[in-house]
Design brief:
The protein is mostly helical. It has helices at 3-33, 47-86, 92-103, 116-123, 127-149. The chain contains five helices and no strands.
């Protein structure tokens, strides 16, 4: 696995968490819209159908919630693992660029990486300078990954 792909796993897990959270909210809003008793034109109640549907949806929410909790735990472990490996890089600027690009949450768009211009600004470089540091950091990170895989 390449260094970049390895580092991007954190963002992919965050995206999966967001997707699961959205699914749960959608199902919950659907369940909230169910009325416990509905009487049709003949006066018959559809309570059993509604109750069964609600139970089915709530069961789906429970399963998704468990998957969400597992993903959150995975994210915590993955971030710790990435931070530990990033800390093995000797150059402070390389460490910082990897942390900003892959581990720092974008303030306005949490699922997107922080842009090169903003990274360069935070580090005191141009966006192009930040990219060059990033290239060196990825090469060094690749070496760290090779050492840990063997």
């Amino acid at each position: 696995m390449t260094a970049k792909r390895y580092l991007e796993q954190v963002r992919r897990i965050r995206q999966e968490i967001t997707h699961l959270d959205e699914q749960i909210r959608t199902i919950r809003s659907t369940v909230d819209s169910y009325h416990p008793i509905q009487i049709d034109d003949t006066g018959a109640s559809h309570l059993n159908y509604r109750t069964d549907k609600m139970s089915e949806k709530m069961s789906e929410v429970v399963d998704l919630w468990q998957e969400l909790e597992d993903k959150k735990a995975d994210l915590i472990l993955r971030e710790a693992e990435v931070r530990k490996k990033v800390s093995q890089i000797e150059d402070a600027a390389e460490k910082e660029v990897l942390i900003l690009r892959y581990l720092t949450i974008h303030p306005r768009q949490p699922l997107k990486p922080i842009g090169w211009r903003q990274i360069g600004y935070r580090m005191g470089y141009s966006s192009e300078g930040a990219r060059h540091i990033h290239e060196r950091a990825l090469r060094d990170f690749d070496e760290i990954l090779k050492k840990t895989e063997s």
